[in-house]
Amino acid sequence: MTDADAEIRPHKPEGPPRIPGARAVRPRSAATVMIIRRDGPKPRVLMGRRHGGHSFMPDRWVFPGGRIDPADYRAPFATDLTPDVAAVFNAHLKPGKGRALALAAVRETWEEAGLLLARPAPARPAAGPWRTFVEQGALADLAALDLVARAITPPQVGKRFDTWFLVADAERLMSLDRQPDCGELEEIAWVDFDEAQTLPLPSVTRMMIKESVARMKDPARPKPFLRFRAGAMRPAHL
Fold first, then answer.
1. Angstrom distance (rounded) from CA 158 to CA 17
2. Model's pTM, two decimal places?
3. What is 28-237's CATH topology?
């Protein structure tokens, strides 16, 4: 990535404001995954730039991810969540929703970045958003995922998400060669964590970059849960 690529673009709001006098929008369930490469001098994380025309996080660099789809509750997988990750999900969500969120993150990584966090499997016919994934001869590798944090968009924003941040090692990808069609993401790059901080990031993504660096030094540190109550952020832990 050149200096021009990393240049801060003209500022746009991270999301549409809430209509004055309206009740806070209900957050949509979503998940995103930080995929980290360790095959160079410094660890690098996969990031992509959202299109400037989006109403939510325009021109911002983000991790691949998105909101949960009903099909994610029924999608096949090669490996299940580890017991530790499943236990955290189950402590906060209805049974099955944590796995569906993890599958959503894996699916969105394929749709947005053209990368398969998966294990080889016989290709099978399918319909819906998982069709092109399973046609690659792949099934999701959920055991590759660990939990980093959870964050809910502030209530003053008109489009809100309840997002679970996951992490996986790039060695668990089926290949580093990606499909060229990146969906919503305009650019895709592997960037080290210092370089990532120079990009136009959503505030929560900047927090997660810092959290990931801290977690590399102390994997046992508590997992943050960032949410707003009574007009202020009330951080807690998962």
1. 5
2. 0.86
3. Nucleoside Triphosphate Pyrophosphohydrolase (3.90.79)
